[in-house]
Design goal:
Layout: H1 2-11, H2 30-37, E1 43-44, H3 49-66, E2 79-83, H4 89-94, H5 97-102, E3 108-115, E4 118-124, H6 128-143, E5 152-155, E6 161-165, H7 174-177, H8 202-213, E7 218-220, H9 242-252, E8 258-263, H10 267-272, H11 282-298, E9 304-307, H12 324-335, E10 341-345, H13 359-364, E11 375-380, E12 403-409, H14 425-433, H15 442-445, E13 448-452, H16 468-479, H17 485-497, H18 501-522, H19 545-548, E14 554-555, H20 575-580, H21 590-593, E15 596-597, H22 608-631, H23 639-671
Parallel strand pairs: 1-2, 2-4, 6-7, 6-13, 7-8, 8-9, 9-10, 10-11, 11-12, 12-13
Antiparallel strand pairs: 3-4, 3-5, 14-15
Bound molecules: 4-O-methyl-beta-D-glucopyranuronic acid (GCW).
Length: 678
């Protein structure tokens, strides 16, 4: 009884969310604990940086979960061996060369067995990075309380480059002013460039651990906007900043993560006052080569550059009459001898050029074959801009000779900031599995994936605690694009809140309803951009008619080939025909592709107008349900996290009500037809 009370007290110790899902807590099941404890903390690995980090993490987890504390190895008995095949006899004995080779450069095999009369577990891989990924996988098994007696797991990621993109704005005087994050809602930037390289904030180490736990292998540390409105991100590649980059790269290196930076296309002009940034100019080409050589001399495993060019005020090659490919290639050529990559963003549009969703495709598809092999076109999931619902961009799979990077947005710019729970795993899963052109899914068309991060210096990293589920889901889907988002949500819930079934079920259910709920009370049926210009949060349908197409007769934007902007025609079949047709278009995208009269009937018999009304009310009801369900967890979760989420969910209800009033009121006024609702 006393023991039970103590355990409960232990479980419910107040938590602030800083540990994310990397919470290593004493295993409650005694038999399981004994099983883990039999390995003591004997993790045997050769002394190499990535393996040191792996061992350290595994010992930390084992010690806490098994309750043994970090004991010194006695060199006999059961042990966990981690490394390459030739690093230890037990690894070579338990795993064949072929099995390791099959998992590719970053995959791993984890296997339990016997060696020389002792029970062992081995984590084997073709690279130290693979071992690191396997280590975090094994730790998860321990956190979930699963038996390791018969472990036999192997995994390998189909997507080679998996990146976090931070939109943090570096500022030299940041220790005085603080540094902002574009579309960041979890506080200020935690990159204290002013302090580097003399002081390394401890949070940077935990950030590197987080990236490794997400099994990412690259990170862009600064905003793609590098110069507009006084931004200073372009300075990161100046000689002055280089020692700071060196320090950050050193933090990342043991965690298998390569450092990338966003650069400005006009860097030759901005950094060294060259008269031009024309990619055809030999002096400009030389400049990029020298800059790359300078960086690689200091950071041999530097990843490369991300570039936003000719987009929203960031300059690019078009100024010189050069194509995007010519622009990307001059930078790519400079990086190539060092093994670096350039990720070139496809987010381009010109308001003067008609429907913006058509423009990435018309700009880039004709350039297929023009990009060098180490250049990758980085494309947002949808053609518009991270709306709650969009079709998948037509560029994916449309350029078979060009490398492509999928860009997802983890930070909730248009999906409720840090105020609303909106679990995006189901959306991303749909995107990855969708084939805009016959049979070629996004997941199979890309060689890289990037997620715009939702972290800041908030104590719990993401502002809203439940937003950590998005960070987790991005890592999971980047590693295994087909993984069901329901499993990811339930697993995250358990890692975050423990093993109380009721808690896991309620948290998972809230997460899984949250995307549709947000869609319902903001913009159902594919209406996008109802938020206020600038804040992307407050409802403002009055000023967004160009996007939702509402008028006195009807609503939606005509993007058909027959009578509209023609965007539907950029898809391969069967989607071209389906999107073109009012009756066959999936209803969740109806108003994205069609302008229809308010009286247009949907499959459920309702008119479009009634559907808009009903869905907004239903969305509010869902949000209220989240509060009710969460309340049932009182006492089952520590007070600090319980209250944190409760307060946010309550605020979400009020805001959902505002949305409902604003949008339904707007359409009532516009159409002159009142809702039939009670
Ligand atoms: O949606 C817009 C955002 C900008 C962002 C831009 C982009 C970084 O509102 O804040 O700039 O997209 O993706 O480049």
């Amino acid at each position: 009884m006393l023991f039970a009370a103590l355990t409960l007290a232990l479980v419910l110790r107040s938590e602030d969310g800083y540990e994310l899902w990397l919470r290593y807590r004493l295993e409650a099941n005694q038999a399981r604990r004994a099983e883990y404890a039999s390995f003591g903390c004997m993790v045997i690995a050769p002394a190499r940086p990535v393996l040191n980090a792996s061992r350290e993490e595994l010992v930390r987890a084992l010690a806490a979960i098994s309750g043994t504390g970090p004991r010194a190895s006695t060199g006999v008995g059961s042990a966990i061996y981690i490394g390459l095949r030739n690093d230890a006899a037990p690894i070579a004995a338990l795993v064949t060369r072929e099995e390791i080779a099959q998992q590719g450069p970053e995959g791993f095999v984890i296997r339990a067995g016997e060696h020389a009369g002792h029970r062992v577990i081995v984590i084997a891989a073709a690279s130290d990075a693979g071992v690191l990924h396997g280590t975090f996988r094994l730790i998860r098994e321990l956190q979930l309380g699963r038996s390791v007696a018969a472990l036999n797991l192997s995994e390998s990621p189909p997507i080679g480059r998996r990146m976090a993109n931070h939109w943090d704005n570096p500022v030299r005087t940041q220790h005085v002013t603080g540094a902002s994050i574009e579309r960041g809602y979890a506080g200020d930037s935690f990159f204290k460039w002013g302090e580097l390289p003399d002081r390394i904030d401890p949070r940077l180490h935990d950030w590197a651990r987080l990236l490794a736990a997400m099994r990412l292998n690259g990170v862009v540390v600064n905003n793609v906007n590098t110069a507009k409105r006084g931004l200073e991100g372009w300075r990161l590649i100046t000689t002055d900043y280089l020692p700071k980059l060196v320090a950050v790269a050193a933090v990342l290196r043991p965690y298998g993560v390569r450092l990338f930076v966003s650069v400005n296309f006009f860097s030759p002009v901005l950094v060294d006052e060259l008269p031009t940034a024309d990619p055809a100019d030999p002096a400009v080409q030389r400049w990029w080569r020298q800059k790359a050589a300078e960086i690689y001399a200091a950071i041999p495993d530097f990843g490369g550059f991300l570039v936003k060019a000719d987009s929203e005020g960031e300059p690019g090659p078009l100024k010189y009459g050069r194509t995007h490919a010519e622009g990307a290639n001059v930078i790519a050529a400079a990086l190539a001898p060092h093994g670096g990559e350039v990720h070139w963003r496809a987010f381009v549009y010109d308001r003067a050029n008609g429907d913006r969703v058509t423009q990435a495709y018309t700009t880039f598809a004709p350039l297929d074959g023009d990009f060098t092999a180490n250049a990758s076109l980085q494309i947002k999931n949808g053609p518009l801009d991270f709306q709650v619902r969009e079709p998948v961009s037509t560029l994916f799979g449309a350029m078979s000779k060009t490398r492509q990077t999928l860009e997802l947005q983890i930070t909730q710019e248009y999906t409720g900031h840090d105020k609303h729970v909106c679990y995006l795993g189901p959306m991303w899963h749909e995107v990855l599995g969708f084939a805009p052109h016959q049979g070629r899914t996004v997941a199979s068309a890309i060689s890289a994936i990037a997620g715009v991060m939702n972290t800041g210096d908030a104590r719990n990293w993401t502002g809203h605690l439940l937003a950590q589920a998005n960070t987790y889901a991005f890592g999971e889907l980047a590693w295994t694009p087909t993984r069901p988002p329901e499993d990811i949500a339930a697993e995250w819930a358990q890692l975050t809140f423990g093993r109380d079934r009721r808690v896991i079920d309620v948290v998972t259910a809230i997460l899984l309803q949250s995307w549709h709920a947000y869609e319902d009370y903001t913009g159902p049926l594919g209406i996008g951009f109802l938020t206020r210009r600038g804040d992307h949060f407050t409802p403002d349908p009055e000023n967004r008619a160009e996007y939702h197409g509402g008028d006195v007769h009807g609503v939606g934007v005509d993007r058909t080939v027959a009578t509209g902007s023609g965007y539907a025609g950029q898809y391969g079949e069967p989607w071209r025909a389906r999107y073109e047709s009012r009756t066959q278009c999936p209803e969740e995208l109806l108003l994205f592709f069609h302008h229809v009269p308010y009286s247009h009937r949907l499959k459920n018999g309702r008119s479009v107008l009634d559907e808009i009304y009903v869905r907004h009310v239903a969305g509010v009801e869902s949000a209220r349900g989240f509060v009710r369900d969460w309340e049932t967890l009182r006492g089952r979760i520590d007070d600090e996290r319980f209250e944190h989420v409760r307060i946010r969910l309550a605020e979400q209800v009020r805001h959902a009500e505002d949305w409902c009033r604003a949008v339904n009121g707007y359409f009532e006024k516009l159409s002159g037809v009142s809702p039939l609702l009670p």
